[in-house]
Design brief:
Elements (H helix, E strand, L loop, with lengths): L2 H19 L1 E7 L5 E11 L4 E10 L7 E6 L3 E10 L5 E2 L5 E3 L1
Antiparallel strand pairs: 1-2, 1-5, 2-3, 3-4, 6-7
Length: 101
């Protein structure tokens, strides 16, 4: 297993803990200069790499908007589990199929 794969696995482990415990996360991504606070809902693999479906509640946004986001896990370089819980909401893909709660 390469160093990058080990790092991705550690990030995925944190994400699973937060999803199961309904904990908000503060993350930093390689392409951004700011932090984001997110409510992680679904971790999935599109066949080539893992993604996180989440609700962004505050912080930096490339698009300038908050709300539902899909994030490539490999772009996350820092992750903090915050002591705040959230109520999970259904995440719906653009085609309308439910992929998790």
């Amino acid at each position: 297993m390469s160093t990058n794969e080990r790092i991705e696995q550690r990030v995925a482990n944190f994400l699973v803990q937060a999803i199961v415990g309904h904990y908000r996360l503060e993350i930093r991504m390689y392409r951004d200069s700011g932090t984001r606070v997110i409510e992680p809902h679904v971790l999935y693999d599109n066949g080539s790499e893992p993604y996180l479906a989440c609700n962004q509640v505050s912080g930096f946004s490339t698009s300038g908007t908050l709300g539902w986001k899909t994030i490539r896990v490999r772009l996350i370089h820092t992750i903090y589990i915050l002591p705040y819980e959230f109520e999970p909401l259904p995440y719906t893909k653009p085609d309308g199929l439910m992929i998790g709660v």
